[in-house]
Design a protein that fits this description.
Shape: rod-shaped
Order of helices and strands: H
Largest sheet: none
Distance between the termini: 117 Å
Structural class: mainly alpha
Number of strands: 0
Number of helices: 1
Helix content: over 70%
């Protein structure tokens, strides 16, 4: 094999390796975009759940305050009935 043929063979191998590398990079890019989409969906779901639970906790706090008021009223009423 002449040096020119060896050079051409090496060039062909290099181009093939570059093509394979580009294909791998393209596949990796697709996978990364898929992961990013899943992370974005997860973050959105967590934010939505957090908002829902915050609202639910606020409603429960309000109910607890009303129940405390009712309990205080009943304790005062019972005290008056006994006293």
């Amino acid at each position: 094999m002449t040096p020119m043929e060896a050079l051409q063979t090496a060039l062909i191998q290099l181009e093939q390796a570059q093509g394979k590398t580009q294909q791998q990079l393209d596949a990796l890019t697709v996978q990364i975009h898929g992961c990013c989409n899943r992370v974005d969906a997860f973050v959105a779901a967590v934010q939505q759940d957090s908002t829902y639970h915050s609202e639910h906790i606020a409603r429960l706090d309000s109910v607890a305050e009303r129940l405390e008021s009712v309990l205080a009223y009943l304790v005062r009423w019972d005290d008056r009935q006994r006293g």
